[in-house]
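Q: Hand in one record:
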Amino acid sequence: MKIVTLITAAALGCGAVGAQAATAPAPTSNQVEPQAVQALTRMSAYLRTLSTFQITLQTQRDDVDVYGQLITLSGAATYKVRRPNAFAINLGLPNLSGQYVYDGKTVTVYDATTGYYSKIQAPSTIRATLDLAEARYGAKVPLDDLFRWAEGDDRAKSLTSAHYIGKAKVAGQSTNHYAFRQAGADWQIWIADGDKPAPLRVAIVAKNDPAKPQFQADLFWDTSPKFASNAFVFAAPPNSRPAPALASNQPTH
């Protein structure tokens, strides 16, 4: 079963930004500030120190209704991660509800809308498994950047613009707010201040869609979770069934 997921901002005081622009020369649109790139590097280095973590996401995503109007839809998700070879993701997003479970040997994708699940043999690391799932099956984990950042991301090579916005509060916590641009997307990230620079908010605008829908997620971190022994074992929900295309070659373990 091929499950294709398209994951496609908050303004930080428009008046303050506008006032600054009135007294300072406007930067070029293709400027990549080293400070912004270094912030991503520092964040990635911190995430690599986390052997286990759990994230609860509160999301908002734009959808285009039958009248051509952008409608904002709310959702939630939970990520349980044990690096380098296990994750369990529960999704309750608009038009995307289900699970992704990886145990170091197989990865299972469950689509709650259809009741089908697919289980395939997987490589021995999270990063390799995500690459395989996208390349071979078109299955893309929402916000898979979380895993790529934790493995060391070379995103800076694809940036056409990067700059620092300023300080901001996310759920009462002080953050540094950055804006980035690359082919097909404008995106922003709010990184926690201090010695634990985790991403606390991510916002993305899909520029290759004429409607320019936005996706935003607030991330709530638990960096010392206590996982149950079966946290990374897929348990088929009642009335679920293997996807027909893969029913004949399900793994036996």
In short: Confidence is low (pLDDT under 50) at residues 1-24, 247-253. The CA atoms of residues 10 and 120 lie 39 Å apart.
